[in-house]
Specification:
about 300 residues, alpha/beta, Rossmann fold, Alpha-Beta Plaits
């Protein structure tokens, strides 16, 4: 029943904590033509734009590039993150973001437009997303039992739950997280519509139809933007769905990215930066699109 759906009210977010597709005429994914300027920028937050040192201001060079492209091409910026709104808003304030994003993809599955510093949800997408997850989560009870039993008896990880995932896992360290990840992937073969969403030692679960990549494609349809006009940047497992040329023609990962991300980005003609975090995003942006000299004018 609709009254039982558990999804955030509009304007309010609830707490949480491939093959290459070459559509360029000359076969070079790094070419940006005058009739196809960059129009949409999709960035992860933690580990991509921001390092993990508290209170360190965001890299000003990234925002210089962003300001230039907004002025020249009406660039739209979406933060594509696993965070919920309250957490993201606090982080942007603490890091002194001089520019706010135009759109938000929150908890890797919900879409919001930022309007006067208030997230206004896409009702159609978010409502269907909530209903789909409610049905899926209710249908995989044996899987939840398996995961709880394994984590509780075989690891020291912490089990949690919230409005977005009835089972969440926080491992003590990366080695334990890798072990949990292997177990989860083995068990998921019996549940084809369920996927694990991981960032570092944190795990949640989701429907396979709702990822950072599918959200980005839906946003493109709303804005009338193509993958060819899109740049995506990410660093970890949960970014892999959007780091695909079916979603974004221009792919970047910072130097601190996990090996799986670097491999996928490089295999599609994207840019694996030497610099970490936002500095690496700017390095890739400049390398792929040749913006360094333009932005300095």
């Amino acid at each position: 029943m609709a009254s039982e759906l558990k999804y955030p009210r509009q304007n309010v977010a609830t707490p949480w904590e491939s093959p290459i597709i070459d559509d360029s005429p000359d076969g070079d994914p790094r070419m940006l033509h005058a009739d196809s300027p960059l129009r949409l920028l999709s960035t992860d937050l933690d580990g991509t734009l921001l390092d993990f040192a508290r209170g360190v201001p965001a890299d000003p060079v990234f925002f210089e590039r962003l300001a230039y492209y907004r002025e020249q091409y009406d660039l739209v910026w979406v933060i594509n993150t696993g965070r919920w709104w309250d957490s993201l808003a606090l982080e942007m304030a603490e890091r002194a973001f001089p520019i706010r994003p135009d759109w938000l993809i929150l908890t890797e599955r919900e879409i919001y437009k930022l309007h006067h510093d208030r997230p206004v949800g896409d009702y159609t997408w978010n409502r269907q997303c909530a209903a789909t997850h409610q049905d899926l989560f209710a249908s995989v009870t044996p899987f939840w039992h398996e995961i709880r039993d394994f984590v509780g008896s075989q690891t020291g990880a912490e089990l949690r739950s919230d409005s977005w995932s009835p089972v969440m896992i926080v491992a003590r360290h990366l080695r334990e997280a890798d072990r949990i990840h292997r177990f989860v992937e083995e068990r998921l073969t019996a549940w084809p519509k369920l996927t694990v969403v991981r960032n570092s030692v944190y795990f949640r679960f989701a429907h396979t139809d709702y990822t950072k990549g599918s959200c980005l494609l839906y946003l493109q349809s709303l804005l009338g933007v193509t993958p060819r006009q899109t740049l995506a940047a990410g660093d970890h497992y949960n970014d892999l769905p959007m780091l695909d040329r079916t979603c974004a023609h221009h792919l970047v990962c910072p130097g601190n990215s996990i090996p799986e991300v670097k491999t996928k980005v490089a295999s599609q003609g994207g840019y694996v930066a030497r610099a970490d975090y936002a500095g690496g995003v700017v390095e890739g942006w400049d390398a792929l699109l040749g913006t360094a000299s333009l932005a300095k004018r």
